[in-house]
Amino acid sequence: MNFHIITLFPEMFEGVFERSLIKRAREKGIININLIQLRDFAIDRHGTVDDKPYGGGVGMLLIAKPIFDAVRSVYPSAGNPSEKSTNKRVILLSPRGEKLSQEKVKKLSKLSEIILICGRYEGVDDRVHSLCDEEISIGDYVLSGGEIPAMVLVDSVSRLIKGVLIKEEALKTESFTNGVIEFPQYTRPENFEGMKVPEILLSGDHKKIEDWKKEQARKLTKDKRPDLL
Predict the structure, then answer these.
(1) What is the pTM (predicted TM-score) of this model?
(2) How far apart, in Å, are the Cα atoms of 164 and each of 18, 25, 32, 150, 167?
(3) Fewest C-beta atoms under 10 Å: which of 13, 57, 68, 145?
(4) Is 119 annotated as contributing to ligand binding?
(5) In which residues is S-adenosyl-L-methionine bound (predicted)?
(6) Residue 140 is assigned to a ligand binding site
(7) Which residues contact residue 32 at a Cβ distance below 8 angstroms, ignoring those fewer than 6 apart?
(8) Any known ligand binding at 138?
(9) Is 125 annotated as a binding residue?
(10) What does the pLDDT look like over 80-101, one tens digit per residue?
């Protein structure tokens, strides 16, 4: 999987993508992350990539041309319906986009290439949307830019790609995988400040333990996330 991230702040990604699972996946060549500095495609020698919006308003908008040029530097046919690829997606991280879900993450993990556009300031020139296959939001709130949503998307998609997780069987019981959130889990000690590990988990009866986990997952989902049922 190749991720291309178009951003004004590529340095924001360095710590996140140089640790843990993402770092190992990059070292193994399972995923590749290409950070593209939007100012490299500025409209002038001053590095200009933003301008005032027509009609007035507070703040600045990212200009369309630098974004088009940045995207087409890695995907030349982007925005051309007749040459649309089924294995590539151009995604704008935007508060007006579809909310990211585990189901969406699964679909994205099947692609070979994802180009992410990180907005900034008051957003992007609306003509940028003609270049994109879709818009994605990570929640109903506003952030300073698309960098953090891009990190969320890369992490959530990457862990579903074969070879990224050491124990891939863990994916089968994770929250949202089967329409419920994950069951409660415990580790040592058995008794911590009077709070004890459920006896069933100490019984060694694997069938009963599995039944307990499924039942607890359903109960937790009903209590915490009834919208999933």
Answers:
(1) 0.90
(2) 14, 5, 12, 18, 9
(3) 57
(4) yes
(5) 119, 138-143
(6) yes
(7) 1, 2, 3, 26
(8) yes
(9) no
(10) 988 989 999 999 999 999 999 9
